[in-house]
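User: I'm curious what two different proteins look like when written out as structure tokens. Can you demonstrate?

Assistant: Sure. I'll show them one after the other, since each token string lines up with its own sequence. Here's the first protein:
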Amino acid sequence: MNSADLKTALAQVKADVDKALVELMGAEEGIPGRLREAMTYSLLAGGKRLRPVLLLWTWQAVAGRSSRQIPDPTADVMRAACALECLHTYSLIHDDLPAMDDDTLRRGRPTCHVAFDEATAILAGDGLQALGFAWLAQACGEKARAVIAKVARAVGPAGMVGGQQLDLAAEGKTVTREDVARIHSLKTGGLLAVSLATGAALAGANDSVLSELHHAGLELGLAFQGADDLLDLGGASEVLGKTAGKDEAAGKATWIRVVGEGEARRITAEHGRGGRDILARLLPDNPATSRLLALASFLWQREA
């Protein structure tokens, strides 16, 4: 798949996810008005919708098997994809808070605590986290227990939350390449990995396939975060949708700081190719897989 076709496909699935998010949020009852407004403000602010896309396209690749037709996702699969976007958005709201990375720009708009207030932003993140798990429980049927346990670990204290703690502790400190990899794996890689694995699980993949897909997701997560750090180094806020140059100013733990820009690019490419190669070896040869492989390459070669 060429870059133009990938861009078109991503735009379409993003529109589908956005539509589903509007419908699902609209169906939720009992949320106080200002809290709903803050949750919706951040959830519908845009973004790549990468976690939902990875879930949906992996489900289609596995469910499609040898078919030359890409199957349409069921309502439950779409709900599960939207659940992961809730969890990702909650993490962004909290990541931007003054006590954390203290940022004022996210997805090209004022961050939630700037647009509303800090207390409301904290509650909006809490609400989206709980809602994400509720939607997963509703979507996954008999697989809910296993899926929720894996997602909770990916985003919890031994996963994304732990990675955020390590990231804060490492600011301005001497770190190694391995330290950076651990932070990136926990803070970014885990949720990408569980997005792939959840899509495959809902399509009926066995435990061996799920384990390898999780490994592929961790590799792609390292590549994605490496590319993000490189973009932060030389990008513009208007293009990135967030404040550029903050990582360097804050002394964040990045491969750039540890080994320099050139080696950071090599490491990023190494992990990106490694993750893509696992997907190519593991998944059926069908149009959905071809599209997913193109996305895997885009993750670390992107310009925004």
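Here's a second, unrelated protein for contrast:
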Amino acid sequence: MVGGVAFWLKLLMFSVAGWVNQEQLKDIEYLKDENRTLRKAIKTKRIRLSVEDRRRLGVKGRGIGRKWLKEVATIACADTILGWYRDLVAKKWTFQRKGPGRPRSRRDIREMIVKLAKENLTWGYTRIMGALKNVGLKTSRGTIANVLKENGIEGAPDRGGRMPWKTFLKAHWDVLAASDFLTTEVWTKGGLVTYYVFFVIELKTRKIEIGGITPHPDGNFMTQVARNLTDCESGFLNGKKILLRDGDKKYTEQFDSILRDCGIEPKKLPPRSPNLNAYAERFVLSLKSECLNKMIFFGENSLRRAVNEFVEHYHTERNHQSLDNEVIVPFENVGEEQGSIRRKQRLGGLLNYYYRLAA
């Protein structure tokens, strides 16, 4: 039994390592330089692209996003490439058949083809055709190919057989956590001082644990944080197998060693990849925009009070869109329809919660 668990854990580690393979970053940097060299070689000569070339580049450009596209695109600017994608979408909704020919497939079949292709990246035309047959929708491979092409979706080999990062995370919710730092300024007797707030988030529930607040996140601080998080009785990381983190040098070898001794593998994410730690980044945005950026702190205690108040509000009073607009740890009277409505204020009304008094 133990050997089987170890095997699957190793397999999971290899999967994560595949996502964050830093060798791919070297390949990307090389290709970017190669493209720039080629563009320089042809100077002002215009590169003529076919409609299919623009369609393909538009779809792939839309997939990586405008911010990253601005860094890697050389054949055309990011806005141009995304414009090709918008043209593709516009044609999808304004298409009108001209001239004779077979009528377009029924809308329900077309929508189902697109749905199956997006939800199953490794399925080819025949596999999709079989799945449609199972639900009483009959069509041909050619029709499936045409529908996918019109919607800017590649065939199975080009669509990418890798599981999307979001899908991978959800498949391993129970063993995943992530961590990050955020900074804020505090007025002290010695002047303005930068304080570091270290936190850990449980990806499945979005629960937060503030690991520590300090102006000096040195090795001793990180060692104590690691011990607190892995405490056998109250450690926040109990039951977790992987901790996603960035490459910040404040994560010491001792910190990683303590986690590994408790069966938790710290996974260092590649540089310039905030989307891989999106849940932690989103908490940083929430804490800063809803609380820290709206306050001036005089001394460490005022900062600690504000952070603790926000975390309590975040857990018990704040609705989360990614959790179907639910509260993480709701009070018993949530959803009551009887009783007068009251407001609970935190931090002088900066954070508000509305509830009904018991009837």
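A detail about the second structure: Residues 23-42 form the longest helix (20 residues).
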